[in-house]
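Query structure, 162 tokens:
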């Protein structure tokens, strides 16, 4: 991981101790521990990879490999609202590219980026499981379906005012 962080090593160690007091160091728990760290800090960084690696007896690169595989384990700080737009064929056939363009225009960043005010992060999702109601997007944990460019912009505007 090459992400800088303002999270201190002491904070990470304290939180890791707290998490591990409720579970054991079985390798099968690695993913759950990483999820808990993301819940607490919002993303995973170098310090976390090193400390988790030490506790589980694995190389920090292996911890990074696990975290980089799963979209729900971000390795960089993201916005308050994480917008994920489905990119499967079902959504693409229903003009998801127009939805993408509308969202990019509305928040002023391209996919894979975060707004300067740290309010929105824009990402693509491989599947949201809403093929029958395509095109779809997810904002944090809320699913929006049957989108049009205008409907997507309206939804985004409602989050701007929160």
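Result returned for the query:
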């Amino acid at each position: 991981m090459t992400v800088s962080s303002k999270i201190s090593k002491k904070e990470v160690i304290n939180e890791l101790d707290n998490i591990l007091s409720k579970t054991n160091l079985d390798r099968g728990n690695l993913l759950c521990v990483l999820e808990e760290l993301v819940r607490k800090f919002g993303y995973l960084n170098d310090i976390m990879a090193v400390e988790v690696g030490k506790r589980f007896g694995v190389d920090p690169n292996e911890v990074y490999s696990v975290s980089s595989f799963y979209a729900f384990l971000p390795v960089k700080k993201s916005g308050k609202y994480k917008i994920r737009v489905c990119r499967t064929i079902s959504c693409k056939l229903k003009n998801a590219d127009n939805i993408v363009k509308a969202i990019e225009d509305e928040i002023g960043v391209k996919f894979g980026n975060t707004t300067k005010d740290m309010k929105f992060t824009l990402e693509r999702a491989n599947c949201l499981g809403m093929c029958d109601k395509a095109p779809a997007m997810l904002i944090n944990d809320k699913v929006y379906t049957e989108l049009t460019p205008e409907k997507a912009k309206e939804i985004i505007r409602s989050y701007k005012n929160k």
